[in-house]
Amino acid sequence: MRDFLTRLPKAELHLHIEGSLEPELMFALAERNGVALPYASVEEVRAAYDFSDLQSFLDLYYQGMSVLHTAEDFHDLAMDYFRRAHAEGVVHVEMHFDPQAHLARGVELPVVMEGLSLARREAARELGLSTALIMAFLRDRDAEEALKVLEEAAPYWEMLDAVGLDSAEQGNPPEKFVEVFERARRLGIPRVAHAGEEGPPAYIRGALDLLGVCRIDHGVRCLGDPALVARLRDEQTVLTVCPLSNVRLRVVDRLEDHPLPRLLAEGLNVTLNSDDPAYFGGGMLENFLACQRAFDWDEATFRRLAGNAIEAAFVDEARRDELR
Ligand code: ES4
Ligand code: ZN
What we know:
By secondary structure, this protein is an alpha/beta fold.
């Protein structure tokens, strides 16, 4: 099964590139940039990744990315991940990035874009790996700032496959970002949003109705609302589910308790993703393997899940045919 899952062509639709920063690279970049880290060793970093909820993770996630300063850093970060993903049989990666988290520490948007763009071209050339770019807004910061970032990104609008919405969900409902997402819609940029990770089913409805998203990142809490489940099934809305993330952020106690089998039984359009692989115990392959252990799914189920992601990927039809 490990061989089968490695060879299965996998498309990843939900990855935060800053969450792919492994402790080894964190230390290397800290040294290169003269940044002090509150850890003495790689082991100490990994030991600190014992989260009680989304916020306790976000605190370390924003601290970890403080080592990223130059375009070269962003390039190295992304290439480091693309190489690992490629070795796991990942053929396409859609990466969220968080411009506001970098702007807040004085790292300007062109620096981030230059580094990520260079890595994307290199991944295509050297690994045959296609990539997409999702510029995410931080929902725990104000909407005016998000709108400003969207305008500042004008030179890069053509390069954005979508805009997204991430960070602390509770208390930051989709309503807050109606104007920003309306602006993206008018620019012809597709929209996605995290919803129903820690937040209620109403946030999933809000993301669909108020933000016009074409897919829901996480969405696992939809099961609390049967009418919403029926709608997600009828519309075949893609859910980018992140199994190991949900365990590590205590959305569920154990993977065996995860709603994934119920989501599938409801006929929903589910995909498997890694979210923040450096923080949650593994990339795409580890997520697939963990599901195999927890749910004992057959090959057809995994083919279905991987196929769902390929059908939903932001690629042209020629590339989709290659991925199939
Ligand atoms: C995130 Cl797991 C998760 N949820 C919301 N926002 C995020 N940013 C990075 N990882
Ligand atoms: Zn996420």
